[in-house]
Each structure stands twice: as C-alpha cells, then as structure tokens.
Write a structure and sequence with these properties.
Distance between the termini: 25 Å
Radius of gyration: 21 Å
Structural class: alpha/beta
Number of strands: 12
Largest sheet: 7 strands, parallel
Mean pLDDT: 98
CATH topology of the largest domain: Rossmann fold
Shape: elongated
Number of domains: 2
Bound molecules: NADP nicotinamide-adenine-dinucleotide phosphate, 2-keto-D-gluconic acid
CATH architecture of the largest domain: 3-Layer(aba) Sandwich
Number of helices: 11
Strand content: 15-25%
Helix content: 25-40%
Length: 310
Amino acid sequence: MDDLVMIGPMQSSVMDSLGKKFEIHRYWEAGNKVDFLAQTSNARFLATNGHDGCSAKIMDALPKLEIISCYGVGTDSIDLQAAKDRGIRVTNTPEVLSDAVAELALGLMLGLCRRIVDADQFIRDGKWTSGGYPLTGELAGSKIGILGLGRIGKEIATRAQAFKMQVVYHGRTEQRFEPFPYYASLEDMARDVDWLVAVIPGGASTTKLVDRNVLKALGPKGAVINLGRGSLIDEAAMIDLLKSGELGGAALDVFEEEPKMPEDLWAMSNVVLSPHQGSATEKTRWAMGDLVVRNLLAHQDGMPTITPVV
Ligand code: NAP
Ligand code: 8YV
C-alpha cells in the first residue's frame, strides 16, 4: 500500500476510507517529528487540515511528496509557493462548506443583534421576574457589507437578502454580473454599513486588512463579523474600540492565535464568540472528508484532482 502522512487527526469516515488504500502514518502522534519524517521519507501522499497546514520544512523532509490534500478551503497555513516550486499538487474542500459557514454568519449576526446569548443568561440569572430584557436592534432594513463576495460571501448575501437586508461588498475586483453595489475602498464601505462581514482568505496580503481605521469607520453603531481568519482583523485595535464604545459589537468565529484569545473579549456583552466552527456540522464535515479522500484517490489513480489549488 502507498504511504500517506497525516498531519492532524481526521474523522472516522476519512480514516476508514483512506485505511483501505493507504498505510496511514500519524504525524501528530509522533514524539520525535524529525525521526518520524525520516522514517516516512518515501511518502508521496499527505493529508492535512487548515490549522496545521504544511510547511516547506515538511515538504523538504518528504522529497517524494506529490500531493497535499487539505481538509478545509483556506490554505493559508500551507506554503503554496514551496509546493509549486517542488511540483507538489495541493487540493482543498471548496463549495461543500459554503452553506454551513454562511448559516453561522447569519447566526452570529442574529445572536449579536437580538442579544440571544445575553438574553438567555438574563433568564438563567433569574432577572426576568424583575422586568423585561432591554430592546434590541433588528437585521431587517440594515446594511451588510461583505468583505469577500466569494463562494461563502455569496451564500451570506443570499441569506441576508432573505432577512431583508441591503447587501454591498468589497473585494479586489468588482464583479459586474453581481446585483450588489461594489465599494473599491473597504474603509468607505465600513462607513456606510451596519455590519461588516469578513470572509476572505488569510495570509500575508490580507493581514490586518480590517485595521483601526476601518473599525472606526464602522463606528459605535456598527459591528464586525469575522469568519475568514483571525489574522484579517487588528484584534488589539478591535478590543480597544469595543471597550471605548467606538465600535458597536463583534461576532467572531476566528481569532489571531486560536484557540487562545484575549480574555478581555470574554467579559463583553456586545461580543459573541464561536470556536472556529463555521464548517463544523456533521453533514459538512462528512462532505469535506469525502473530498479529502477523493482528491487523494484521484491522484493515486493517475487522474486529475477534483478541487485543485496548485
Ligand atoms: P473564495 O471563493 O476564494 O472567496 C474569497 C473572496 O475573498 C473572493 O471574493 C476574493 O475576491 C476576496 N479576496 C481575496 N483576497 C482579497 C483581498 N486581499 N482583499 C479583498 N478581498 C479579497 O473563498 P471561500 O470559499 O468563500 O472562502 C473564503 C475564506 O473563508 C477561506 O479562505 C477561509 O479563510 C475562510 N473559511 C472559514 C471557515 C470557518 O470555519 N470560519 C470555513 C471555511 C472558510 P477578489 O478576488 O475580488 O478580491
Ligand atoms: C475548518 C476552515 O475548520 O475551510 C476552512 O478554511 O477554516 C474550516 O472549514 C478548517 O480548515 C479545518 O481544519
């Protein structure tokens, strides 16, 4: 059987399918990573996830590597240039997770807008008997600015329209065939919207794109929602502005150094926190795992991969 290096653990459906066709070598279980890589240096196949990725160093230690199959659509933790330079194919899991991530985006917005988490705590604290919960905002009639009208961004736009919101977007290029107004400037868009939803890839070119100026433009009545990568937002500036009231709220599924995060966020009732679970439904995770397997099998059979990145 072909050797397959697996960087982090995967669900049983993936392990079972891959186990029939590959000898799986579990990197995450190895005490000595250098020895592990020396022992698996003949491997042509590698499976990883969006968190662990794959460094050039690992690629160097596996000189026969031909394919990296990533469980996740974001590949910012994989050194894509190094893979290209070495002729290694990289695949990811686009589309199959877009519904689940978009659903969570609307869930986070509703949670923040209607204060669902805080109101739940209000009841559990026995406060309702002393009076009703304060009035909240409402999504209907408000304006959402989507940073990244890609596969997931478009699903968010569709759902936002069903909630009677006005949709606008920013990206590097205008998509003229889309019905939504385009902003060439992220800061200008932030100034005009109630909700700024970030769903673009991580990496050097997008680090802290949502900076202090953008967050200030969003303002005391605006809220930022992040489902892209923690690196997209200047987290320290965001916390400062949330504390001073210059930014209205935040709902976050991703963080700069997850699973760690500044504990300041825990005490804020105008913040909703989610442990990077945009795609974390049983249905979607099954489909992502299935794509990871099918990409590896396609390559093993000498066929083109199904969802190539590189
Ligand atoms: P996609 O279809 O490739 O869309 C990405 C969008 O980002 C495109 O519209 C692109 O538009 C825009 N973009 C890229 N670079 C940009 C930049 N420098 N400035 C402004 N806009 C930029 O990707 P997707 O499938 O929607 O996924 C998007 C990201 O969501 C992933 O890369 C991942 O980081 C994140 N994600 C998170 C979760 C989660 O669990 N929270 C799950 C899945 C994905 P232009 O090319 O016009 O700029
Ligand atoms: C996953 C994601 O949680 O697809 C992505 O880019 O962020 C999520 O779907 C992650 O990649 C799993 O490792």
